[in-house]
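Homework help board

Subject: predicted structure for assignment chain

Our instructor gave us this sequence and asked us to write out the predicted structure in token form, then describe one feature. I got the tokens but I'm not sure how to describe them. Can anyone check?
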Amino acid sequence: MCRYTLIKNGKNTLICIGANPSVAKDDECDATMNRLCSIFENNGYDGFVMLNLYPLIATKLDGLPKESNERIYKKKLKNIKW
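My token output:
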């Protein structure tokens, strides 16, 4: 499963980049996003756009494949350009 972006709209938005998506969803945070949201809020940001270097959801980096899937990687690049 892939996630290309995770967005929370706000007036003061921060763009952040991770290695790969966590299991958070648009309407449900996980531990990683809870920590990040706390850091954002403590620094005056009320929104974010979370991008990841690779869109495949994995709870640990060693859960990612050794080689990238070109199809999902190209879709990710289009999403970043958007």
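Reply (TA_rk): Your tokens look well-formed. For the description, you could write something like this. The chain has a mean pLDDT of 83. That's the kind of observation they're looking for.
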